[in-house]
Amino acid sequence: MKKIVSILLVAVLLLGSLAGCGGGGGKSDAATLSPEATGVALSNGVSVELGDYVLDGETELTVAKQPVEENKDEGYKIEAYDFKLGDMTELSDFITLRIPYDTAYCEDGQDPAKCVGAKYKNETTGEWEDVLFEVDAASNELIIYTDHLSTFGVFHVKNEGKRSAKITNIYADFTGIDQQQAMETLREYVAGGGADGEEAAGLAAQLLTGYNGFLGGVAGAAGETGFATDLTGTILNMASIGSPTFDTALADSAYKKLNKLGKVAAAVKIGSVMLNTEKTDADTLGLYKDTAMLALSYAESAAWGLAASGLFIFDYTISNLFEQGLAMKMDKINEVYAFFNDEYVSKDRQGFEWTARSLKDWRQVLIDIAEANPNEADAKAAVEEEIERYARVFWTLTSGDMDVVVSEMEKSSKGSATIPNATEAEIKALIGGYKAQLYERLYPVTQSVSTYMQRKAEAAYLDALNEVKEFFNQNITFNIVEDIPDGEKSKYEGYALRSSF
After folding, report:
1. Could you give the CA distance from residue 94 to residue 456 in angstroms, rounded to a whole number?
2. Domain extent listing, the chain
3. Mean pLDDT of 197-216
C-alpha cells in the first residue's frame, strides 16, 4: 500500500495582478512637434523628447492623464498617461519621456526615489509590462526610454522594499555591477566558446537577490558564484524526490537561464562603459567584439549579440571612419551637385526618379548596414561603398536631367546656378569634397545609432530577466511517496510539511 502526498510549491518573485479603484484623470494636453521642434514640456508636467530621427514632418502629440488606480490594502497607486503621436505606435528610435512622481506617497522614512517606478500597458493583453526607465531624484521625475507608444504608468509604493517586487529597474542593476566582474564574466564566456559558466550564473544570482530579497536565503554566506551553485543544487536536491529525468532537466534549465541573464548583464554593463567613455581601452574593445561575434553564432543569444555588434561597430569602427572623413579637406562644392544630393526630390516625372536622403533616412541606412554586416570590417566597407555610390549618382545624369535639377534649385530660391561641366579629375575632387561634408553631417547620426544599439541590448537584458522571473514563478508539484508495508500504518500520517525556496 502506498500513500501519495502532493505538495504544490510556488516561488513568488512578483506580487499578484495590479488593480485598484480609480479616481481623477482624463485631462489631455497636446503639442505639435516636427523635425525642427522635437521636444516639448507640457502643462501637466510631462516632457517628451523625440530626438532628431523620428519625424518627417509636423505631427501632433497628445498626452492624456488617466484615472488614478489605487490599492490601499497592498499599498500602491498608479498614475498613468496615454501617449499618442499622430498615427505612430512603433518608432524608429528610442525616445525619452519624463513624468513627475508624487514624493509624498511613500511612508515616513522611506526614500521617494526608491518608492516609484514605471511600466507600460500592453494594449493587447491589458497587462502592465516592464519598460526601460530611470529615476531622476533631483527633479522628482521618471525618465522612460521607449521605441513604441502606449499608456505608461508611474507606479508608487508605500514601502520602498516592495518596489522591486512590482517593478524592474535595470539601471539600478547595472549600477551595482562591478566593471571588472563584468569583464571576468565575458572572458569566461569567450574562453568557453559560449558554454555556461559559474561567473555568469553568479552574476545573475547576485542580481536576483535585489528583487525583494528573492532567493536570498539560498545564498547564505557563499558569495556570488557560490550562490549560483547553491541555487542550482537546491533545485536539484528538491527535484531528486521525484522523477530524476524531469527534475534534472528542471535544474539544468534554471542554470541555463541564469547564465543567459548573467552574460547579457555583463555585456550591457561593458556596453554602457564604452558608450560613456571617450576612448575605450583595447582590451575592453577586443573582449566586447569577441563577445558580440560569439553571441551571434547562437540562436538564443543572437538578438543581444546583434545589438552588441552594432554598438561596437558604431562606437568604434564607424566613429573612426567618420572622424577620418571629417579631417578630409573640402574645397568649394558645386551648388547644383550639393543641392541634388541633400535636397532634390523629382516630382511627377517619368524616367529618372530621385529623393535626396534626409539624416533620418541615412540613419536607417546605417542601421540596416550594421545589422546585415555584424563583422566590423564588412560594415565599414559597406558604409564606405554606399556613401561612394550615393555621391556618384549625380554624375550619371543626362544633361536633360541636370537641367531639371537646376530649374528646381532656382525655384527653391537657391539663386542662379550653372550645370557642372567637370573633367574626371574635377568630378573626383567634387565627390571627395561632398563626402567630407556628408561625413560631417552624419557624425551625430552615428552617435545616435550607438545609443540606439545600447538601448536594444538593455531591452534584451530586460527580456532575459523576465524569463528568469517566469521560470521561478512557475508552479512545481512534488509527489512524496511513503512505502507502507501491508498491515502497517503510515509513520507520517497527520504530519504537515513546510518548505521554503
Report:
1. 9
2. 21-167, 176-321, 324-467
3. 72
- For residue 7, pLDDT over 50 is answered with no
| 131 band by pLDDT with thresholds 50, 70 and 90 | very high
What's the grid cell of residue 8?
504544490
d(CA 307, CA 295): 10
The answer to whether the beta carbons of residues 492 and 482 sit under 8 Å apart is yes
How does the average pLDDT of the chain come out, rounded?
80
What's the predicted TM-score (pTM) here?
Answer: 0.73
Contacts of 420 (CB under 8 A, 6+ apart): 334, 336, 337, 402, 430
- pLDDT, position 367: 93
* Whole-angstrom distance, CA of residue 354 vs CA of residue 404: 12
- State yes or no: pLDDT of 52 exceeds 70: yes
**226 CB burial (10 A radius; 0-12, 13-18, 19+):** middle
Q: Among all chains, which residue has been given the C-alpha cell 561625413? A: 439
CATH of domain 21-167: 2.60.220.30
Residue 236 CA to residue 249 CA, distance in Å, equals: 9
Neighbouring CB atoms inside 10 A of 385's CB total 11
Three-state secondary structure call for residue 13: coil
Strand, helix or coil for residue 86: coil
Residue in the block written with cell 523635425: 35
Q: If phi over 0 gives left and psi between -120 and 50 gives alpha, with beta otherwise, what is residue 51? A: left
Q: Which amino acid is at 181?
A: Q
